[in-house]
């Protein structure tokens, strides 16, 4: 074990501890270190230690022969002080890795296995390669329903858990895959106007053109401290904040960082991910939205029913009152795809603007109605009417404005991208299919969500009749390179299918 000087390397390695050792460092050869080895780094003064994956560098601008460079996350975990003395040694493999090997071999794991794995992942004892091996084993070999329950419990236990001290704390979650679909931002002010507690922490987009937090950020601050979040929820009965500031089921965030590049989203991991976050956030009543469509995450009603039963089993076992709603996922919901465009749609619905997208309004009212019916004083079937009355009266808009002010109104909301291009139908006919994945891809190439004003604005939906010169959507971008990429992809495939006949086959 040797001693080196700690140096911060300004690299965001996203949920992974990474260390940098110069090739000319005496420890590099004497200790037999190799790139991608895991090492244990320990502070000399207080004994604090972390595990990191080693990278070997040849540039002294990154780290010198007498230094150990660490990424931003690892630097903070070690106390955030450059120049302190640290020791470096080979790291021992975590004990829980034996359980991963058993899972790879086809074994069914118990709760203690999953708890050990979750604890080691939360402590950064796993490399992303080892996490990937665990995820692939769970996905390819499958998880028994009890294993999904164990994984969910384990992820909850490795983080903080909020307790709001109320018997009715509600939440709503869509499993994703549908562009637009910003129903949450309409539902939250409706439900809070009724007086129900709905502390909504949401994610940012990873592979989609916008997440709820990205869209809300167009209107207000979303990065709130835990104390500020609690203050807002207590005063307004709700919030619409980014969930990254609270340490809720942190293992889930680490797993997602590996799942997304692998395009993995197995049912068991999906259920564990969603329910661990909701339970950790203190929800005890939850509505799950599962859209069904040819280009949605869930393609068939049969697959949706299997997923629904898994949600219900795990939810019942963990004591959460859960209702799963199967919805139409054949096309985007609303008109805008991208933060600013989606925020516009939301505010049009809340303002009862006659030009507001009807499908966004209707879906939000249906889901809000289901949530309101968790209130024992509301009879079944009356929730939709109450939600509609709250929206039509302007109470939901007033509540949204109060939440925006409480979180901190954005003084400089982004404008829609100045570069615009209309994509034309190119032929006579009726819109018979819309590819959610293609439109999301075009919106991302245009710059969304990093450029909040970029994206796609839809003009036609399923069943609409078009002529060759009918604009089916408009691409917006801020930068010429993004604009060109999006236009080129749309020229290859608009994402729209136009035919002679349309049959409305809702799932």
Give an overview in words.
With 507 residues, this protein is of the alpha/beta class. It folds into 4 domains: 2-90, Barwin-like endoglucanases (Beta Barrel); 97-142, no CATH class; 170-249 and 278-407, Nucleoside phosphorylase/phosphoribosyltransferase catalytic domain (Pyrimidine Nucleoside Phosphorylase, Chain A, domain 2), CATH 3.40.1030.10; 419-499, Aldehyde Oxidoreductase, domain 3. 40% of the residues lie in helices and 20% in strands. It has helices spanning 26-30, 72-77, 97-104, 111-122, 128-141, 145-157, 184-193, 212-217, 226-236, 250-262, 267-280, 301-317, 339-350, 358-372, 383-393, 395-407, 436-445, 480-492, and strands at 2-8, 18-22, 38-43, 49-57, 67-70, 85-90, 170-174, 198-202, 238-242, 285-292, 321-328, 336-337, 419-424, 429-434, 455-458, 465-466, 471-477, 496-499. The strands form 5 sheets. Strands 1-5-2-4-3-6 form a 6-stranded mixed barrel. Strands 12-15-17-13 form a 4-stranded antiparallel sheet. A hairpin with a 5-residue loop joins β3 (38-43) and β4. α3 (97-104) runs parallel beside α5 and α14 (358-372) crosses α15. The chain is globular. It starts with a strand and ends in an 8-residue tail after the last strand. The relative contact order is 0.10.
Main β-sheet, spatial strand arrangement: 1-5-2-4-3-6
Structural class: alpha/beta
Number of domains: 4
Q: Which blocks of ≥5 consecutive residues have pLDDT under 50?
A: none
The percent of residues in helical segments reads 40-55%
User: What is the terminal-to-terminal distance?
Assistant: 62 Å
Query: How many β-strand runs?
Result: 18
Give average pLDDT, whole number: 95
The level-1 CATH class of the largest domain? Alpha Beta
